[in-house]
From TrEMBL, chain A:
The keyword Cell membrane applies. The chain crosses the membrane at residues 101-122, 134-157, 177-197, 236-261, 281-304. It comes from Micromonospora globbae. It is found in: Cell membrane. Residues 95-300 form the ABC transmembrane type-1 domain. GO terms for molecular function: dipeptide transmembrane transporter activity. Belongs to the binding-protein-dependent transport system permease family. It comes from the Bacteria. It is a multi-pass membrane protein. Keywords: Cell membrane, Membrane, Transmembrane, Transmembrane helix, Transport. This is ABC transporter permease. One of its GO terms (cellular component) is plasma membrane. InterPro entries: BPD_transp_1_N, MetI-like, MetI-like_sf. The lineage of its organism: Bacteria, Bacillati, Actinomycetota, Actinomycetes, Micromonosporales. It holds the Pfam family BPD_transp_1.
From TrEMBL, chain B:
Residues 93-281 form the ABC transmembrane type-1 domain. This is ABC transporter permease. The keyword Cytoplasm does not apply. One of its GO terms (biological process) is transmembrane transport. It comes from Micromonospora globbae. It comes from the Bacteria. One of its GO terms (cellular component) is plasma membrane.
Amino acid sequence: MSRYLITRAWQSALTLLLSTVVVFLGVRALPGDPALALAGEDRSPEALAAIRHHYGLDQPLPLQFARYLGRVAQGDFGESIRTGVPVSSMLTTALPVTVELSVLAILIATALGVGAGVLAAVRRGRPAEWLANGLALVGLSVPHFWLGLLAILYLSVATGLFPASGFVPLGDDPVGNLHHLVLPAVILGTGLAAIIMRQTRSAMLDSLSSDYVRTAKAKGLRPRAVISRHALRNSLIVVVTIVGLQLGGLISGAVVTEQIFGLPGFGKMTIDAVFQRDYPVIQAVVLLTATAYIVINFLVDLLYSVIDPRIRVAGGAA
Amino acid sequence: MTVLTVPMAEATPAGTTRRARVLRRLRRNPLAVVSFVVLALVAVVAVLSPWIAPYAVEQTDFAHTFAPPGTPGHVLGTDDLGRDVLSRIMLGARASLQVALLAVATSLVVGVPLGLAAGYFRAWDAVISRLTDLLLAFPFLIMAVGLAAIRGASLTNAAVAIGIAQIPGVIRVVRSDTLRLKSLDFVAAAVVDGASDLWVLARHVLPNATSVILVQATVAVPAAILGEAVLSFLGLGIQPPAPSLGTMLATAQQFAARAPWAAVLPGVVIMGLALAFNVFGDALRDALDPKGDR
């Protein structure tokens, strides 16, 4: 176990370092001379040289990179070019919204996906399976931002059941907070639910035809108990894996969902930054997303090497 | 060049080649037939759309803005500038397919060689796996955000961002199929026969890996279509006034109170396109599954 974890930790750390290199070089590839942009009125060679010196832009690239790493490690992402607000404080207000939205979406997707997946596997070849399969295909094919638009148009505006946009912080008004987030979370969760459903179904079909389930049935366990205690338990590892793998899709989805529902989260901050060419913000957003992906997938690996002993053995032997 | 050859190790009973069996299974699956016909029709319309669209896409008519569907002369109505919605949907679908094909081609051109190398040469595996991890850490939207910041938003950059994001998936399936094929006797026989690594990869491994590549490509296309729609909707993809299903929805959102139908149609088209690809992809995967009719 320890050897597997050490390998995975080392790999994750390396990937993390590489992603900071990518982001660092990406910023250097931006059009325009940053010194010129910062100079404003006074563009004399002396002024430009002074600016380059002040921001360390005259240093060799590796040294600049080391300094950049040092700042990032301390949570210093610079300041927004547009507002002058430190990027780190923008993140502290935006991130909780996105994290809450994503967690809600994962919960909804897991409940729907596992439920439908189990149903489809147990009711094999019957209308319930076709319905679940069909819904999953639609869930995979529907553009979620469009579903969001329709939901706002036909659920929020027409009936007034849900607010069409806006946000109330969890601490201020928990009920109002949920009321604002339910619809976006359902919309964001549909795609994930479809993927979880398909994987749960095939994992359930595999475990339902396995020897240990046959044994459980043979010893007279009720079908419900066989499904929940034996077959489903083994399928749950699938969900953990998918949530890790689909995290990228979830983040992308959250960006769009926030944009449509006007939620003041990470995604809205990202899109605004692109259109305002607010490079420090873009840089922080890209780096933070990569870090989140790498760290969470490392945790997922840890988690299922705890759940499933077969993985640690195989991983350790490799 | 034939796409599916008959590999020695997977030889089927006399008289039926694998390709014929796959085609027969597809023909017998009504969903596969329907989705294929839909896709063929869409492809024809998309290719011919510049010539068969009833109006020029950028032709405005300020006397007839927001005409509802069913208006004489404009079957699907007009938009905020009086432009014909049907014409814009036809050319928008064309743009969606363009982006999707460009994205998937990008991911295959880069991903297939890397996947083959990772599966075949042990020494390359670790390096390529780190690259895969690195690419996965940048979700397509974030990649698109970065590209748009560096190079500006455009159809090509949207396709490149989606394509790069799809590379890890291609590497993964090609790598694992290469690992499987490498262990089979006919590859070992070729190696013993003195064939070079490149020859073995090109003549024996790649042709037998085409089916997994094909399945991967059919699931990548609908994902790319949805990706293009999202990017264009956010303004990071195809730029107005060029027609795109995503930008049509972005405009429709602004005028949703006046013309709710405008928010429905482009979405239905995107969903229909993606659904047809997904259904066909599922059918293809089942038909190619050597385990037979599951």
